[in-house]
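The following block was generated as part of the benchmark described in Methods. Ligand: zinc ion.
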Amino acid sequence: MRVPTLQPPQFSTEQVERLRSRRAAGSLRGLWDSHVHLFPDAIYAALHRWFDANAWNIQFRGNAEAVVDQLVVSGTAKAVALAFAHKPGVSGYLNRFVAELCQAHPQVIGVGAVLPGEPDDLAIVDEAIGRLHLRGIKIHCHVSKLAIDDPRVMRVLARCAQLHVPAVVHAGKEPSSAAYGVNTRTLCDVARTRSVLRRLPDLKLVVPHIGADEFADYLELTRQFEGLYVDTAMACADYFDHGPDWAQLEACADRVLYGTDYPIVPYDADREISVLAARIVDDGAFAAIARDNAARFWQA
Ligand SMILES: [Zn+2]
């Protein structure tokens, strides 16, 4: 992965005007951010070390409470906190941490972690949903070195479908890094995701980053499977060279959830929503992406 130098987004005069008028109308407040990361201090410190060595410069380095405050300042009404585990035995601890944050901050919606194949993985899922009242399960294919169609992942996804909670699976190839110790470009493929959706027709699935870098294929897949959603995190921030086709994104707006990946990003919390507000033409499509889809999805 080539890490770009941070540049301001480039907007046409028309886009600048659209952003200005939406901001004036208050349309950049009351957002639902379906992709944030709230971790204990020690995990944040480990993430900062990893990103400093292997990826981009994380800009905001406050603790979880400070991240929640910052999101509120930047217009977020609800934030979906995605935990993920990098080794066996930590999921339960992360899930309890997220559940406590949800108790303290009603604007936080918690999604639990599990490492598929770790001891008691299904019991960890059951505890996260049943006892801790988390609202879904997150799996990161790169971090876990597991493909979405791996039998261990499939078992967890089947349990999510059975419990009627969404799974959020980083199943896209990017952002890739040799530091994951696995070739994410062969581990991940939209064909694998398609086969999972065929085999688990009741699964509600969110694929972050619009499935980067198979943007067009993932957006097309949302036309075929009504349980499939994508989030925008980092894919619509004008940071990487490649992103989705904006006309296709707008045509599929009913399945797109605004998300930021905050605070694991090399820019300010409001960058991604500014780009979306400048580039999405239709007001209904913008409202769907910025809040309406997520309000329906996470409250259902
Ligand atoms: Zn993320």
